[in-house]
């Protein structure tokens, strides 16, 4: 009621409204009255901003893995993607062509996707449904991998472990070897070898003056040694990561060179982890598998993938070969420990992806994959011809989908930035693959044909 309205003679800060909480909230049975607060007894209420989230964030008592702190900046390819995104924000109307990250662009052949679609649909039926499969992979797929890629090389179905990709198996192998080993890598090489070694605790700190981690043997692979290391200068290493055809240089090791590598491993008691993810791109008589070299089964593991053959970068399917003949220093089979790692860390590759793998290895699938590889190799030729016409020193391209271009005396990150800024084309700075990659950029042949032609035109215009 109007006659019951409360009259407050003193202004009170809104932050002090809680002081009035004892007053009635209704006027029923309340006499008309006035409430007076002493005029000289003002209440001072100080408004204070809340502490920032950073100051009040709860912290656990778990110590951060010190090995993670050793890693330098971000992983190479996400960093390139970040810079690409920043460039697109700066130039929203530019058509940016990505020839940096080695991601396939062409559709997966229909013979392969049809098999995956059928397998996916069968999961909706009682007859076709299946849950967990064998951690080592579908038995039929393992047998087909052995007969297709390792026929007459003495590799059995039981030696093959199907996975969700070679990159994942690199980390599983590092878990197998543990923290007390020393690795050797080609310099330059795929950064996952080094980063996984750091995370496992196999290395010391990064040495900024030489751009290397302590306790990793960097095997320099440059034009002067035909991209194959001088093994006589390499100190003893327990595990040797070796990729052929090499990512990023595109160079494939010869039979003679791989024979030297196998003998080096035997002489030093080392294990080779041989990455053959680009073997289908080999055009000459270079070996496509380390197991083509006599004695390799006693010193080598091979990892491979369908990613760059069938466009499975998103489907995820690969394999690792661990021969029964490969033994640790105490005589225990390496394959048995790797099987234990796989069974502990992995529930097996997707049954749908494995159906795609079986289709890849059918006569029709092999033909279709070959056509896809040939398409990318034609892209490679366009890129090689472009840089050759401009007078650059150009390497790779013959046996791999990567072209390795030299810019003498220049920072590879500066060249990357220049090509991105002025031509709107993404490449990969060579130093991201190791100190041996400085002054080079890697150009990927994975792209639609019209984009390859357009990128070539822009690069010619930039460096003419």
From TrEMBL:
Family: Belongs to the class-I pyridoxal-phosphate-dependent aminotransferase family. LL-diaminopimelate aminotransferase subfamily.
GO biological process, one term: systemic acquired resistance, salicylic acid mediated signaling pathway
Source species: Canna indica (Indian-shot)
Molecular functions (GO terms): pyridoxal phosphate binding; transaminase activity
Keyword Transferase carried by entry: yes
Domain annotation Aminotransferase class I/classII large: ranges: 95-459
InterPro entries: Aminotransferase_I/II_large (IPR004839), DapL/ALD1 (IPR019942), PyrdxlP-dep_Trfase (IPR015424), PyrdxlP-dep_Trfase_major (IPR015421), PyrdxlP-dep_Trfase_small (IPR015422)
Domain of life: Eukaryota
Transmembrane segments: none
Entries under SUPFAM superfamilies matching the protein: PLP-dependent transferases
Protein name: Aminotransferase class I/classII large domain-containing protein
Coiled coil: none
């Amino acid at each position: 009621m109007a006659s019951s309205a409360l009259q407050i003679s003193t202004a009170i800060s809104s932050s002090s409204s809680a002081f009035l909480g004892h007053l009635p909230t209704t006027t029923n049975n309340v006499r008309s009255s006035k409430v007076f607060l002493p005029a000289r007894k003002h209440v001072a209420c100080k408004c204070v901003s809340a502490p920032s989230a950073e100051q009040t964030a709860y912290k656990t008592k778990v110590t951060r893995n010190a090995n993670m702190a050793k890693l330098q900046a971000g992983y190479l390819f996400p960093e390139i993607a970040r810079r690409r995104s920043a460039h697109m924000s700066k130039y929203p109307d530019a058509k940016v062509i990505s020839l940096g990250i080695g991601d396939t662009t062409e559709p997966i052949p229909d013979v392969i996707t049809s098999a995956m679609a059928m397998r996916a649909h069968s999961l909706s039926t009682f007859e076709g449904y299946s849950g967990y499969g064998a951690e080592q992979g579908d038995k039929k797929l393992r047998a087909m991998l052995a007969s297709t890629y390792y026929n007459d090389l003495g590799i059995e179905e039981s030696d093959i472990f199907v996975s969700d990709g070679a990159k994942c198996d690199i980390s599983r192998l590092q878990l197998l070897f543990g923290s007390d080993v020393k690795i050797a890598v080609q310099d330059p090489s795929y950064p996952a070898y080094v980063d996984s070694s750091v995370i496992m605790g196999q290395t010391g700190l990064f040495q900024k003056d030489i751009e290397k981690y302590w306790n990793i043997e960097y095997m320099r692979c440059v034009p002067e040694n035909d991209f194959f290391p001088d093994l006589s200068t390499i100190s003893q290493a327990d595990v040797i990561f070796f990729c052929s055809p090499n990512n990023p240089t595109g160079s494939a090791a010869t039979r003679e060179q791989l024979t030297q590598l196998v003998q080096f491993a035997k002489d030093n008691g080392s294990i080779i982890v041989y990455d053959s993810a680009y073997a289908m791109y080999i055009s000459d008589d270079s070996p496509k598998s380390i197991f083509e070299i006599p004695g390799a089964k006693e010193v080598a593991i091979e990892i491979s993938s369908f990613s760059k053959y069938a466009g499975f970068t998103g489907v995820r399917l690969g394999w690792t070969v661990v021969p029964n003949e490969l033994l640790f220093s105490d005589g225990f089979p390496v394959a048995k420990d790797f099987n234990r790692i796989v069974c502990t860390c992995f529930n097996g590759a997707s049954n749908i992806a494995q159906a795609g793998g079986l289709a890849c290895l059918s006569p029709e699938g092999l033909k279709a994959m070959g056509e896809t590889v040939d398409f990318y190799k034609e892209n490679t030729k366009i890129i090689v011809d472009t840089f050759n016409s401009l007078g650059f020193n150009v390497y790779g391209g013959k046996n791999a989908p990567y072209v390795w271009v030299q810019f003498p005396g220049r920072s590879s990150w500066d060249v990357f930035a220049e090509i991105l800024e002025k031509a709107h084309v993404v490449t990969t700075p060579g130093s991201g693959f190791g100190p041996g990659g400085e002054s080079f950029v890697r150009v990927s042949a994975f792209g639609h044909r019209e984009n390859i032609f357009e990128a070539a035109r822009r690069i010619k215009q930039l460096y003419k």
